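User: For a benchmark we're assembling, each entry needs the component sequences followed by a predicted structure for the full assembly. Here are entry 17's components. Please fill in the structure.
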Amino acid sequence: MTLFLTFTVLGLVLGAVYAIAASGLVLTYNTSGIFNFAHGAQAMIGAFLYYQLQVVWGVPALLSVLVLLLVVGPLMGFLLHRFIMGGLRDTADVTKIVVTVAILLGFVSLSHWAWDPQEARMTKMFFGVDSYVTVGGVVVRYHEIICLLAAAAIAIGLRLLFTRSRVGVLMRATVDDPDLLRLNGHDPERIAATAWALGSTLAVLAGILITPVAGGALEANALTLLVIDAFAAALFGRLRSIPRTFVGAIVLGLASTYLVAYAPSEWSWVTNLRDALPMIILFIVLLVLPQDRLRGAAVRTRERYEVPTVRRAAVWAGVMVLATVAFRQLIDDSSVGTLVLGLSFAIMALSLTLLTGYAGELNLAPVSFGAIATIVAFHSGIEGEGLDARMNVVGLALGVLAAALTGALVALPALRLRGLYLALATLAFGGLVSSMVLRETQERSWFGQDLALFPNGNLIVSPLAVGPLDLGDQTTFLYTASAVFAVLGVGVVALRNSGYGRRLAAMKDSPAAAAMLGQRLPLLKLSVFMISTGMAGLGGVFMSMALSSVTADHFVYTLSLSLVMLTVVGGIGYVSGALVGGLLAGGGFALIVGSFNELSIEHPVHAETFGVLSHLFLVLTALIGIGVGDNPSGNMHAIFRGQRVLARAPEVRYAALALTTVLYALAYTEVIGTWTFSLLVLVLWLALPAIGTALRAEKILPPEAVAARRATPLELVGIDTPYPPLLAEHLDRELGLPARHRATVPAPPVADATARTTTGPVAGEEAQHVPV
Amino acid sequence: MSPSETVLETTGVVVRFGGNTAVDDVGIDIRAAGVTGLIGPNGAGKTTLYNCITGMQRPDAGRVVFDGQDVTGLAPGARARRGMARTFQRLELFLSLSVRDNLRVAGDIVRANTRRKLDVEAETDRVLELTGLTDVAHLDVSDIPTGRARVVEVARALMTRPRLLLLDEPASGQTEQETEKFAAMLRALADDGLAICLVEHDLPLVMGLCSRIHVLDHGVLIASGTPAEVQASPAVIEAYIGAEVVA
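Assistant: Structure for entry 17:
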């Protein structure tokens, strides 16, 4: 009985902290319409700052808490809203989600920078472990009482805020109709800022409270995933009701502690299960949630994607493969592996172009589907021993199939619901893979077969061999990966141009109208999700083959999130956007951060500087992701638009092509380095629209723009060209000034005119014009 | 099919939003080969009733019978596959597709979700011609004026070859000329046997086009009958007094 009571208290306390986190999430979601994936990361930052203040700098606990709750939390929320969230109106859900994901990644890299993850950090309970009361034989620590009291106070406070206070009612109104609110003389931005400040403070509080309760050291990744626990709790209230969210949080907390208390000790996977419990509960709650009502929602968002024809896509696919072959001649063997890795990520990113760019759904764990495919391919497809071991095509196919089927399982509970729920289901799936599947390092009996899913935490994934094609050779692997991406890219474009692709677009633009034409939306969503996860699985197996040996760290959820983010940055509606995003995620970062490390080994004096630079680089990536809010269609979109003006002056392109060939020849003969070549070519083609416009203005620009260029800019009239009286009249008219009787005033001498413009009479002129 | 055949019938439909009864015990019928009007002042419950008929809103009580079958429990898609089609008061066009593709995708949906054979390209050309949209077919659907966009919604609905077409304020945003052409088109469609229901504030259009009219006020059906009967009804005159002049 005492055991039961003890675990009940522990469960309630854990539930209380979940409730605090979840209520902050619900608050910001309901006032800004933005689901804050960075909520857990904010809690994490709060926890680390508390550690810094209280443990490292020795600030008294109470003062530390006050500083965090009264200054840091509100400020963080205010800044987030002021500089980031406020700019996300009229963007698609995908953009909003990606921006918060970028913030999450930014916070995680910041914390890795400031607090070395290798070092263990512990925070203590308030008043220490030894301050407790005993109730009916159960030890209840002061810290736990504080958690319970804080949760209760927040529950009552939020209830009063939303039902009784003016600000609370306005907060609810902000979501429903910000324009109406503005018409009524309120400022929805200020209300949203208040909500963000409050929400962030709740996140920070949850972060401070949870670490001593959950036990163990401060761990940035685990704390960041608190967002999943909070979300699972918030789902009980359908992301709206605060009281039901509290119930959900308590259920979650109790279930988690009872599981530890009462599961038979021979179930060695229970600790893993406990970590995965919120995700499992999340799936169950998704299953029982009632279906969303279809409502009209076709609003014009700022994202714009254009669809190329299949022919064009095929031409570009050919260009890409040729470029790969040409580029291979310039790089040494060690760089080939990085490029292959980049292309593998590009294949995974391509799965997002189909799913997100075309169908408007989101998968936040593409790399986890890659992990599933890798495991299946590893167990079913490896033949031979040692260095001669190869993967057969059956294994690859089974891996892809497994990823697609797993995709179906993940998507099924969320199919009837809005896109956000599917996104969260995938994030939870990513957590599940990390905390359960990838920890299956020991042999266990699976349906009568003894097998370790992830033997010793390290899979040796041999390269694929199909007939004469052997990916054991790096160059062959590179060409194959390039060709596979090219073929899939054309396939994806062909799909978009088919009836199926049009139906995806219809579902994305207006689910209500698509349903009213007879479309079975769940079926369509399921099919595209399965195709997409299958493709992600293929990319994942390629990634594993490229790495040749993979551990759980290669499938961590932050990698998935970076990939999603960078693909959106590249332009998730485009095959080329996927290529850019994949290359950046897979190749670019490994290369850049890796070379910083190499540099610091070569130049130990500057090691610290290089370390800072590589950290800065990771944080900057997150900033790029945040910038998506300003350019939601992605960078490839902007580049295409820029290049289009050159259609009227093809000779500019031919010249650039010739110049590229010359540069290539120089690089091939090692006159210039590969990096120099790459950079020059990149700059040349990116700057080509500007160069072309400068050289060929009369051909490229419309006639009136050319005329405007020829004419003297207004501020130089009177200096470069004479200042005709007609212009003065014209300016007066344009500015709405009363006509002056210039004709009657004799033109003053030049010297006098200078004086007039700088001194006294100016004021007089102003006075003359003010009454207008 | 005989002209008086009832295609759709609602009986005792009730929808409550909290304490507010938006639709209160409404029974209407819509017949084949004619245009039925559904009118009433703002907030009378017209769109809510449409949502019940199409399955986007589950009624708290009452039944919806379509083609002799009870469809009250069916999802919107299932009703659409049985031959129901609608347009939306707030336009719900597929904004990333061209005008032509907005129609084509409706055909694609029919092909993929029913057993019916359909030559999508030929049907698209036919409907574009029929609705007079050929000249804007290649344009982005977001680049055409609202009046034409409403016609695109009707054309898209026609691609599914419906038995019943529910129009929600199709004339708003149309010029007078556009409305005239639109009325002629609806008349021709009705003559071919289609059952059309029209929610509209343009009363001259409704009176000139409809063979039968249902009038809602505050969620209650206050009159049903021919245009002449409805215009003579004291309840209708009271509901509209001061607001609009019955033409």
